[in-house]
Write a structure and sequence with these properties.
Elements lengths: L9 H12 L14 E5 L11 E6 L6 E6 L6
Antiparallel strand pairs: 1-2, 2-3
The protein binds zinc ion.
Length: about 80
């Protein structure tokens, strides 16, 4: 039961998001590892608005978090 997709606490997710949004490399709040960022999306949602999601994965504890990027951050 260790290979279930582990999640962070909401507080930790917020911290990661905030860190990422400030331009700093996001680090895992559990072990301090720099997380791997992956962009998801690419416009196949067909809803007419560009919604970009960011997927951050910690290679150490395998926890991941997905959050939406609001427009106007960096383009
Ligand atoms: Zn971790």
């Amino acid at each position: 039961m260790t290979d279930e997709t582990a999640r962070f606490d909401p507080n930790e997710e917020q911290a990661i998001q905030k860190q990422y949004g400030s331009g700093a490399p996001p680090t895992c709040p559990r072990d301090g590892t720099v997380m791997t960022a992956r962009s998801i999306g690419g416009g196949s949602f067909g809803l007419g608005y560009a919604r970009k999601r960011e997927w951050l994965i910690c290679p150490t504890c395998k926890r991941s978090v997905i959050f939406d990027l609001k427009r106007g951050t960096r383009n």
